[in-house]
Write a structure and sequence with these properties.
By secondary structure, this protein is mainly alpha-helical. It has a single domain, classed as Winged helix-like DNA-binding domain superfamily/Winged helix DNA-binding domain (Arc Repressor Mutant, subunit A, Orthogonal Bundle), CATH 1.10.10.10. About 40% of the residues lie in helices and about 5% in strands. It contains 3 helices and 2 strands; from the N terminus they run ββααα. The protein has a two-stranded antiparallel ribbon. α1 crosses α3.
Length: about 80
């Protein structure tokens, strides 16, 4: 399974927020844990349904969202 296939969006799960493999683990929550300083092994210990590749997919997803195509000045 490729990293991009691990992130799913289903309107019936977590109000349509991106989740990991259709499970009720929002990408947003995993990114917040990583940003707070938890390491992957700690997260995996707390969430045994997850795999290392799931957390890497969350990081990849965030990196793709952060890509900027261009910056434009808004009219004022």
């Amino acid at each position: 399974m490729q990293l991009s296939e691990r992130i799913t969006i289903n309107p019936d799960i977590c109000h349509g927020k991106p989740t990991i493999r259709g499970l009720r683990y929002p990408v947003e929550q995993m990114l917040e844990l990583l940003a707070a300083g938890m390491i992957i092994d700690e997260i995996l210990a707390d969430y045994p349904d997850l795999e290392t590749q799931d957390l890497l997919a969350c990081l990849d997803y965030a990196a793709r969202l952060a890509k900027v195509k261009g910056v434009y000045k808004l009219a004022s």
